[in-house]
Amino acid sequence: MPSPTPQSLLIGQQAEAKVFAALAGLPAPWQVFQTVEWRRLVSDGERVGEADAVVFHPQHGLVVLEVKSGAVEVRDGLWYYASGNAMKQSPFSQARRNRYALLDKLSRRLGSGALESLTVTHAAWFPDVVWQGILPGAEVPSRAFLLDRSNLADSEPALLRLLHEAGPQPQAWTQSQQRAVKELLAPDCRCLVPLAGKVDAALGVMHSATQDQMTVLRMLRAQPRLLVEGGAGSGKTLLACTLARDHAALGKSVLLTCFNIALAQSLAASLADVPGITVMAFHALAKTQALAAGRWPLAWPTRCRPSRRPWGAFSAKSLPNSCCRRLNMA
Fold it and tell me: What SS3 state is found at 70?
C-alpha cells in the first residue's frame, strides 16, 4: 500500500478541521474529544490506533467518528480513495476498531458489565462530499450513521438521530461514568517535583565548586598553611571538606575542626565514609588535648553561659592555651 503523500496528509487534516469546527458549535453538555490515540496490549503484542473524534452526551451516549477526506469510491465492497488507491480497511471498520478499543479501556475502569446498558456506537463522516445513492454495504445500518458535507452547518440533529437509532431508550450516564470518560479521553495530570528532589538539586548546586573555589583548592594543595576568608555561603566549608578528602585519599591522618558544634556534627556525618578523617568541634578538640596533656580538669567558671564574661575568657584563653601546650609537646 503506498505511503501517504504530504499533499494527501494536508487534505486529511483540512477535512478533520472542518469536522472539528462543526462539532465546536455543539452546546453543553456535549463534549468533543479530538484525535484520541489509544494503545492496547494483547496476547501477541501491542496494538495502536487513533480515533479522529469522539463525541459524548451524558443523556444520549457516545459515538466514535472516523473522518475521510475528499472523494471516495466503493467497488465490489472495497473502498478506494480519489487517487484510485485502495483503503486498507473501510472507514466504518476503522471506526469500529477504535470503538471497541476505547470500550475495552472504559470497561477496565468501570467494570465489565457497566457499559452494557449504555449507548456507545460508531460512524463515519465525509465532510468534502454529499453522499448520494445506496448505503455502502452491510456495515452501515442506516443513513444516520453516514455523515457528510450537509451535516457541517448543524451537526447536533444528525448526532441526536444517530444516537437515537443506536439506542432508542438511552440510559443516562452516571457522574462516575462521565468522569471515567473524561479521565480516559482527556486526562488532567500534574506531576510535581517532590521536596526531596528539590533539596537534592539544591545540595548538588551547593556542592559544585565554582572557579574561584577551584583556584583556592589548588593553592591549598600546594601550600602548607593558608588563610581563606569569605562570607557566609561562599564555600569555605566545601573547600575544607574537599581538601580533607584529598589528604585522606593520600593516606594522611586528617583533623577537621570548626567552632560550631552543630556544624561539626554535620561534617562528621557527611565524612563518616572516609577513613582517616577526624571531625571535632574546637572546644571538644581543646578538651581532648588538655586531657592528653594532663591539664584537665581546668577551673571552669561558675556561670558558663556564652553571654557571660567568665565563659568568654575561658573559651578564648584557657581552652586554646591548653590545646596549644599539648600541640607544642607533640
Answer: coil
Q: DSSP alpha helices (H): ranges in the chain? A: 6-24, 91-110, 156-166, 175-185, 195-206, 211-222, 236-249, 261-270, 282-292, 309-313, 319-329
**6-185: which CATH topology?**
Trna Endonuclease; Chain: A, domain 1 (3.40.1350)
- Paired with 281 in beta bridges are 258
Phi/psi at 272 (5° precision): -60, -25
User: In angstroms, how far is CA 164 from the centroid of its own chain?
Assistant: 41
Q: If we measure between CA atoms, which residue out of 67, 68, 96, 95 comes closest to residue 81? A: 68
- Tens digits of per-residue pLDDT, 182-226? 999 998 877 777 777 766 776 665 555 566 666 666 666 666 677
Cα angle at 78 between 76 and 84, to 5 degrees? Answer: 105
Q: Which residue shows C-alpha cell 558558663? A: 304
Q: Residue ranges of the domains in the chain?
A: 6-185, 211-329
- Interatomic CA distance for residues 322 and 160, integer angstroms: 96
Q: Quick one: cell of 311? A: 565563659
What size, in residues, is the chain?
Answer: 330
pLDDT of residue 245: 87
Whether the full predicted model's pTM is greater than 0.85, yes or no, is: no
Weakly modelled stretches of the chain, pLDDT under 50: 1, 304, 306-307
- Contact (Cβ atoms closer than 8 angstroms) between residue 291 and residue 313: no
SS3 category, 256: strand
HSE value, Cβ hemisphere, 13 Å, CA-based, for 233: 4
